[in-house]
Amino acid sequence: VQLQASGGGLVQAGDSLRLSCGTSGPIASNHLLGWFRQAPGKEREFVAVIRWDGSHVDYGDSMKGRFTISRDRAKKMVYLQMNSLKPEDTAVYYCAASRVIWGARTRSDQYFYWGQGTLVTVSS
Description:
Blueprint: E1 2-6, E2 9-12, E3 17-24, E4 32-38, E5 45-51, E6 57-59, E7 67-72, E8 77-82, E9 91-98, E10 113-114, E11 118-123
Parallel strand pairs: 2-11
Antiparallel strand pairs: 1-3, 3-8, 4-5, 4-9, 5-6, 7-8, 9-10, 9-11
């Protein structure tokens, strides 16, 4: 499985941005497709996850109510809609995929496939 993240950029606080993750290769219905982010000097942080069949979705605590993850199986794309962006959302955002049990969905070390990352910068 190969992943390609895109859509990052420089925005102002309060703005919206949509990240996209293109996938190639076989993805099973029970694969998890996740977004993680990493700010300078900080550990990689769980952002959101969706089961490829769409049956399960979850978000990091600080993203709930602002971010929405979705996927288009026909286009083999995963999206992260980010609204009400804050300066603390500034980070490199990565999409990831793997056959991960739901209970381990927030653990970046459980994901085998990673995209190259896209930088999101939110100015105040």
